[in-house]
Amino acid sequence: MTKWVASLAALLLGSCAGNQGSGPPPTVSSIVVFAASSLEPAFVKVAGRVSPKYRLGVVFNYAGTQALSSQLMQGAQADVFASADTAHMKSLQDAGLIGGSPQVFGHNRLEIAVEKGNPKGIHTLADLARAGLVTVLADPSVPAGKYAQQALARAHVTVHPASLEPQVTGVLGKVSLGEADAGIVYVSDIVSSGKVDGVAIPDGQNVIADYPIAKLKSASNNQGADEFISYLLSPEGQSIITGAGFEKA
Amino acid sequence: MSQARIPGPLVALAAAGLLLFVLPLAGLIVRAPWNQVWPALTAPETATALGLSVFCSLTATAVALALGIPLALLLSRTSGTIRGILRALTTLPMVLPPVVGGVALLLAFGRRGLIGAPLYAAFGLQIPFTTTAAVIAETFVAMPFLVIAVEGGLRGLDHRYEEAARALGAGSWKVFLRVTLPLLRPAVFSGAVLCWARALGEFGATITFAGNLPGRTQTVPLAVYVALETRPEGAIVLSLILLGVSLAILIGLRDRWLGEP
Amino acid sequence: MSLSARITVKQNGFFLEVDLLVSAGETVAVLGPNGAGKTTLLRALAGLIPIQGHVELDGQVLDDSAAGRHVPTERRGVGLVFQDHVLFPHMTVQQNVAFGLRHNASATSRQWLDRAGLGEKANALPRDLSGGQAQRVAILRTLATEPRLLLLDEPLSALDVTIRAEVRRELSRQLSGFHGVRILVTHDPLEAMALADRLVVLEQGRITQSGTAAEVTARPRSRFVADLAGVNLLRGRARGDHIELAGGAIVAAPDAGDGDVFAVIHPRAVALYLARPQGTPRNVWRARAEDLDLQGERVRVRLSGALPLVAEVTPSAVRELKLDSGAEVWAAVKATEISVYRA
Asked: Do B230 and A1 touch (CB under 8 A)?
């Protein structure tokens, strides 16, 4: 439900931006973008720029990558798909649903989310195994959870999580409310949340996720889809992406 | 006794309403990977989630009965503004999005919560992420259904039974236990069933307040949600099992509760 | 052993103000039209509603609003019998009777049922009883607790006419063996006269008349009692030998005195004629027969005109006068047939 509210907000934001300034013309066409939830903060900003520039309305459907890909498999109509991993993009490609070739527009790495000021003094993944520490992870069924398990395995750390949240927002929420001492999430989540601090995970243990984007074969607005994707890959778009905690493509 | 015929358009609307229930159920049954039902049923994770679901929902119903019946009694004896306020407070969890309810529960019983903080400071007690938290979340969301049903029963009660009991020398406890409560049995039963069903299907408040850990807080709805991400057919099987178990319990309890004394 | 009650109840615009003194062993019937406050009075005596005033039973203060004293219903030693039985539907007959008993409840309740000839119904549920049986059980249930004050709220009015007499006889027998104070609320004058020693007439929250049945009906002070007694009741201002009625009509009555009075005319004292009668009667009015009602050997004729009255004549008189609805007649009443008393 929050997703719908968010996409509605994005739409409003987009059209608001379109009506700002010295009388820019109203939007004349629109595209539908299916995007991984973690992209929401960045994409809201992207839409804010794209809309006035190309007179393009952008409607978002944010959800977990898995949910989006199964919606597309079931015949959902969209112009652009932005995924949080390459695997789902690949399977859509195999199903013949992707128009052009997918392009990676950013990377996301993991960090340990801790309470502001890091009161428990957590500095490494190994600290998460400390007795009495309440750690929450994302469920392994979602990419963030899968990557967290990989990172912990690389660090040879066994953690007994208090909860396996089916959404990354659940991990963030519990850390920011002080119910959990630590969680493993994307850097972009920590940046967008603003209510938790991040503790870096060394490259040797970290898992870096690729975010590919592609136009869908069923796109009804080819031009708008191309404009959105090329803006995202432009230096201007990339600076929004890095500002949201992602790494450049 | 002959009854007035139901007008045709109403029958059509009733049929449409019934279809709204039946079609999704049919979808679930038709699309179910039946060859996976038995393996899923015997899988230890299923048993764990199912056992936890049944335990939490029944405990929540028991707690709701213990707290909700007195609350309904209180509600039925108040009037005016106080009643309005009490009733609004009681029904709040029904209109509140369950996820918001979960956050509210964290703010009350969490480690930093109104009551949770002193409890944590004094005893090191942390309620979130425990089975207790799952029960609290389910009770929070489901109890209003019981309170509303029992209060309705109390309002429909012929209070002369209670007056007759008092005139026969019964004190307030005796009147409550031997007259009011037995007379309320149908209302208590339907309220408890609604409450239990709501508790069994509870998702939002539980996942927010209690988290999701197999064996501790992962009830069937949470397991279904997680399974939906990776193996949708497993989610369907799990939903069907939940459906079957709830039907069995409902039918079993009905005879026991509403049978002849 | 006696009850003394001075009760004022104000609720939702309803007002009840009653002074009542009843001795032990006495049965008082409270009669009154619907909405007069009869049930409210019983509920007040039972302690089910808050009152202003003072209630004392056998020297024990049950209510004293001035002293802030109120004994709750369950400790008053009252017995309450409702219009319909109000037996607990989830208990057997015997469990119902045993409900109010403290000692030896099972055996004692069985004895009560056996004595009333209801022993074989002991294990039945109330829904399996006939209306009369259920009400008899309800009466037993109350009497078994040996209340000091027995309150009966129209105990027979929900029963079929055919079994009402039977239950009334049994109730009468039960009451004679009961030594406490008995108050019976009813709107049925027959029930009141059969069961009660004294009548109290309650109208609009106040006692308007009190006394034996003969005393009350001899001098009605309200339309309600006049209807009970089946007489015409007039109210007006006496001026020596005549009374001026509110409607303007004048009724001759010797020695009427002066001031506000009631006048009672028995329907049999109203004579009807086709032509204006000559001679003694001074009270003669033109009247119109509105409707006729055969009651046993007599016909009651409702008259309209300067003075609305009910006349009672023989069926043969109806034939002679060719009386029918709408017939124009002359009505005459001898002045000596009018009884006048102070309002």
From this structure: no
Query: CATH homologous superfamily of domain B44-258?
Result: MetI-like (1.10.3720.10)
Give the pLDDT band of residue A223 (cuts 50, 70, 90): very high
Amino acid at B246: S
Per CB-CB distance under 8 Å, the chain B contacts of C90 are: 182-183, 185, 261
Residue A7 pLDDT more than 80? no
DSSP string, B179-244: IIHHHTHHHHHHHHHHHHHHHHH--HHHHHHT---TTTT--HHHHHHHHHHH-HHHHHHHHHHHHH
Phi-psi region of B122 (alpha: psi -120 to 50; beta: other; left: phi over 0): alpha
Segment B224-235 mean pLDDT: 81
3-state secondary structure of A237: helix
Q: Is residue A137 domain-shared with residue A178, that is, in the same domain?
A: yes
pLDDT(B57) > 70: yes
Mean pLDDT over the full length of chain C: 90
A115 shares a domain with A102: no
Identify the pLDDT of residue C189.
82
Q: How many domains does chain A have?
A: 2
CATH value at residue A153: 3.40.190.10
Question: Across the interface, which of A70, A134, A166 has its CB nearest the CB of B226?
Answer: A166
Which of B72, B131, B127, B130 lies closest to B105 in space, CA to CA? B127
Task: Tell whether A65 and A103 lie within a shared domain.
Answer: yes
Are A37 and A6 spatial neighbours (Cβ–Cβ below 8 Å)?
Answer: no
Which chain C residue's Cα is nearest to B158? C86
Domain ranges of chain B: 44-258
CB contact (8 A) between residue B167 and residue C75? no
pLDDT of B7-46, one tens digit each? 999 999 999 999 998 998 888 888 888 888 888 778 888 8
d(C-alpha B214, C-alpha B45), whole Å = 8
Q: Which residues numbered 29-48 in B keep a CB inside 8 Å of some CB on C? A: none
First to last CA, chain A: 31
Chain B partners of C46 at a C-beta cutoff of 8 Å?
A: 163, 167
Q: Is B191 on the interface with A (CB under 8 A)?
A: no
Residue pointed to by tokens 């031997």:
B178
Shortest distance, CA C163 to any CA of chain B (angstroms): 24
Cα-Cα-Cα-Cα torsion B39, B45, B46, B47, nearest 10 degrees, comes to 110
Instruction: List the one residue out of C122, C104, C263 whose CA is nearest residue C254.
Output: C263
pLDDT tens per residue across span A201-218? 999 999 999 999 999 998
Contact A174 B229 (CB under 8 A): no
Do C and A make contact via 3 or more CB pairs under 8 A? The reply is: no
Check CB contact under 8 Å for B207 and A170. Answer: yes
Q: In terms of residue numbers, what domain contains A69?
A: 3-107+210-248
A154 and A60 housed in the same domain: no
* CA separation for the pair A226, A214 (Å, rounded): 9
- State the Cα angle at A163 between A159 and A167, rounded to 5°: 115
Task: List pLDDT tens digits, range A30-89.
Answer: 999 999 988 999 999 999 999 988 889 999 999 888 889 988 988 899 999 999 889 899
